[in-house]
Amino acid sequence: MGLGSINWLKYSSPTTFYPLAGRMIPWLAGVTVILLLVGLYLSFFVAPSDYQQGEAYRIMFIHVPAAWMSMFIYLVMAVYAGLGQVMNTRLSSMMATALAPTGAMFTFLALWTGALWGKPMWGAYWVWDARLTSELILLFLYIGFMSLQAAIDDPRRASRAGALLALVGAINIPIIYFSVQWWNTLHQGASISFDQAPSMAATMLAAMLVMTLAFWTYTAAVVLARVRCEILERERHSDWVAKLLESES
Amino acid sequence: MNDFFSMGGYGFYIWGSYLVTAIFMMVELVLVMRRRRTLLQRLGRMLRSNVNRGQS
């Protein structure tokens, strides 16, 4: 049986996706714990001190993954929200809704850890710099998306309004990413770029990548758990939810 | 041990970053788990009251 014979679209139905997500969550949670332990060990006990920044640079091991996740989650959210409108798939819109709080959290954490890194290195918690300002706008976009959806009672209209905001706001992502090239900023350049060899020690790079993977599996686990709540809420009047509740109680 | 926590004088900034990150991630987990629990309770009550009224 080849891959082509599996009906992938089947999984875009909430009824089949709900149990599938439920089976994935424990695995993702277990992998997250292992990755976090390995990542923190590398971050604090293996990666050497930086010759310019001493120990302060160790904030990088959560700052960069949090900042990457903040942008990545937004793009995934915008794609799901867009798909939900174009393909008219309910699950896509629910995924977009479920991704937003975690994306907002990582955006806040990128700003927070950035402030605590900026103070000892630049002498200020905050500067109105292109990178920092565009990341702050990203936080407002997430908050706007969530408040807009919360303010509209009809789920279909809420999804539509949210999708519009998410797609228009996606323009901010390349602005954040390239801000350090387009403008003179205090923020340092990209930690890893596609056309250059990484400018840091291999163990530092390993720690950062493992922490990024840990944040990634954490996000997948939390968002799947949240989308399961979203599915139950929106489909509460359907027969399959009633059957599911009967079998669980 | 003290050396480890002082982080070459940057302890406040480093632990302030890691601690707040850990708290946020754990609180998010608790909130999602609690949302699921209260939702299942609410839906369970809804289902039972429908059964009692003979709508099911």
Give a quick precis of the structure.
The complex is a heterodimer of chains A (249) and B (56). Chain A is mainly alpha-helical and 249 residues long. Chain A has helices at residues 14-46, 60-86, 90-122, 130-151, 155-169, 172-182, 202-234, 239-248.
Please, could you describe this protein's structure?
The complex is a heterodimer of chains A (249) and B (56). Chain A has one domain. Chain A is built from eight helices and no strands. The two termini of chain A are 37 Å apart. Chain B has two helices and no strands. Chain B starts with a helix and ends with a helix. Chains A and B meet through helix 2, helix 3, helix 7 and helix 8 of A and helix 2 of B.
Q: How much of the residues of chain A is beta strand, in percent?
A: under 5%
Mean pLDDT of chain B: 89
Low-confidence stretches of chain B: none
Q: Mind describing the biggest β-sheet of chain A?
A: none
Order of helices and strands of chain A: HHHHHHHH
Shape of chain B: rod-shaped
Give me some keywords for this one.
heterodimer, A: 249 residues, mainly alpha, 74% helix, globular, B: 56 residues, 2 helices, 84% helix, rod-shaped
Secondary structure: elements and pairs:
The complex is a heterodimer of chains A (249) and B (56).
Chain A: H1 14-46, H2 60-86, H3 90-122, H4 130-151, H5 155-169, H6 172-182, H7 202-234, H8 239-248
Helix pairs in contact in A: 1-7, 2-3, 2-5, 2-7, 3-4, 3-7, 4-5, 4-6
Chain B: H1 2-6, H2 11-52
